[in-house]
Structure formats: C-alpha cells, structure tokens
Amino acid sequence: MKITTWNVNGIRAREAQVFDWLRIEQPDVLCLQEIKASAHQVPVSLASSPDHWVYWHGNKGYSGVSLHVRKGFSPVEPRFFHPAFDLENRIVAVELANLIVASIYVPNGGKSFEAKMIFLNAMERFIADSHAAGKLLVLCGDLNVARTPRDVHPELAEPEQIGQTPPERALIEKMIGHGLVDLGRHFAPDDDRLFTWWAPWRNMKEKNVGWRLDYVLASQALAKQARSCTVYREFGTSDHGPVTAKFEGALFDPAAVVAGPPVPTPRAPEPPAAPQLDLFGNPK
C-alpha cells in the first residue's frame, strides 16, 4: 500500500501537479486537503477517474478535502462517510473492510481558536471510539499543529503562537495515545528539519525553514508493516509538500469490503436560461 497526503492549497491551481502525481507515483490512496472548490468546480481531468473511486467534499474557495482510492486496490466501490463532527468540509473517510482511512484538514485556529479545539477534541473521541471498536486507522492530513518544538524551525519557534501551544500539542498526543504511530517521526526520530509546510515568502521552502503540520498516523498493527514515510518538499507549488507512506503486505481483505452507495460524479451546474425579452429588449 502506498498512501499520499497533500494539502494542495487550491485544486484548480494544482490540477496538473495532482494529475502528474497520480500518473507517476500511482498511490493506492490519495488524500487531498484545502481543495478550495465545490464538486462541480473540480477540474474535468480530476473530477472522476476510470482508475479511482473518488469523493470530493468541498465548497467554493475555502477548506475542502478529497479521497481517491485506486480501483485495483479496492475493486468494490467502498463506503465514504463523514464523522458527525465534520464542519466546513474538513474530513472524509473511507471504509475498507476493517480499515478506515481519513483525509483531514484541521482548522488553523486563526479565525477561531475555540472552533479548532472543538474539532480536535471531537477527532480525539472519534479515534478513541474507532480504536475501541477494533478498527484499524490511517489518518492523513494537515492537522495544523506542530507536534513538538522539534517540528518547528528554531527561527519560527513561538510557544504562544497558534499551532504550537501546549493545549493543541496535548490533544495530538492524546490522539496518538489511542494506539497510533506518527509515521513521519517514526522513520526520522532525530531529524530536526523534518517539515511539511513553509510560508510562501523569503524562499522559506527553498531554505527548508518551516513547520511539520502534515501527518500520517497509523494504528500500531499497520505501523509494523510500514516501510517509509517521506516528505517531497521540492514537488509542486503548494506551500505544503506531499507526504507518502509505504506499507508491505495486505492491510485489509478486498473481498471483505462492503460496497457503499455510488458517489455522484461532479458535474458543472446548468447555465442559467437566457432571459426572454419583448420587442423592446425588456425582460418579459
């Protein structure tokens, strides 16, 4: 299994790059965040795919997530769903037998720190309940929290800044405490320059002066099968880099996947009808 998570910061701006990633890297699962588009605004080249089960969950110009599952990986169209705490099109999950994969975009907290904490608390309860039910989890996305001081470049360290505060970090640790492994840190325990987001100015990306905000969190049983978790800083023009985790062996039984309802293919809205005018050019 190969799974990629990527905050694209606008699917319409990154259309060709996402298409190239799917074509060249061929991930079994692709999780995108901050697509900033409703379903009918998704570029035609990505809206639907003969090779993927695709679910778009967004709104015009703000937030939004998507999930792409390769049909060779799951021959049956699986069930996509949104946990009850989903607000502002920020999470979509898919059930693959006993495995749940989710694409998540946590609020950054700048508009409302309270809303961010409510979302994080609800996500922690969702993880706890799923773990208690015996589900295997792979949670992917932009969590908008640098887990530890090491996950922020020293030049940008500011413990009172949103994204670095103790309450946020405590919730991330509480989530991980429900039987999850942070694969990025698991494979690079001593790398103090492991970042996934860079401010889009002063060549911060080129200099690798950033934060680690994008994660692949996997249940311990799955983490034992993980072989790598890599950040592709130099790929694409988003302010985030794609993160890909690779696993060995079967993570679920494709024959046990319960088919979900068909996902509607995104279509452009019908253009408004031309107004009917009278002989003098006035609307009737």
Give an overview in words:
- This protein has about 280 residues and is an alpha+beta fold.
- The chain has one domain (about 1-255): 4-Layer Sandwich (Deoxyribonuclease I, Chain A).
- It has 7 helices and 12 strands.
- The strands form 2 sheets. A 6-stranded mixed beta sheet has the order 3-4-2-1-12-11. A 6-stranded mixed beta sheet has the order 5-6-7-8-10-9.
- Strand 3 (about 50-60) and strand 4 form a beta hairpin.
- The model is unreliable at about 270-284 (pLDDT under 50).
Tally of structural domains? 1
> What is the fold-level CATH name, i.e. the topology?
Deoxyribonuclease I, Chain A
In N-to-C order, the SSE pattern is EHEHEEEEEHEHEHHEHEE
Separation of the first and last Cα atoms: 60 Å
Put simply, the count of helices is: 7
CATH class: Alpha Beta
